[in-house]
């Protein structure tokens, strides 16, 4: 009978996410991963394979957890338009959190690896496609309920909001004032209606 593993695979995988998230793929040596995951070299290789295989597993787990958060937020009961606004403004809060300057693992990986690793590029493209689907679904429901003009193209708007999220994350590294980023989100949200753009609060709620 095979000897049972002496560590929790899920805990170890989340520890790997933290290492890659902090150091990037290129900066995360096997020594750093072994240290961060609290495993021996043999245990790491046996459970996860090589560094690249481990990274793909960690990235997919990170993506799955983020998409679940978006799905819960964008499919909740109530106003779809309000849900979209809350999702985007919540992203601003998280992107400007002064206690976590690592950024987004997806955005970091896109800039570091997408142009030179086709498999990772496909994983990232799948994530963005799923996020677009979630936004498009929320916009379609908003159209059906009369919150958004029926002539609006939900796919074009969904792609626009995905681009907005990525833009917020990139710009948060250069100009992290949440008021500036929140005002840009309000401009993006104005695409959902012909009404006036909502005024951004002078003192938005702090990030958590």
TrEMBL record:
Pfam family, one: TetR_N
PROSITE patterns found in the cross-reference section: HTH_TETR_1, HTH_TETR_2
SUPFAM superfamilies in the cross-refs: Homeodomain-like, Tetracyclin repressor-like, C-terminal domain
Residues of the HTH tetR-type domain: 6-66
DNA-binding region listed in the record: 29-48
Top-rank lineage group of the source organism: Bacteria
InterPro entries: DNA-bd_HTH_TetR-type_CS, Homeodomain-like_sf, HTH_TetR, Tet_transcr_reg_TetR-rel_C_sf, TetR_C
Entry keyword annotation includes Transcription regulation: yes
Keywords associated with the record: DNA-binding, Transcription, Transcription regulation
Record's protein name: TetR/AcrR family transcriptional regulator
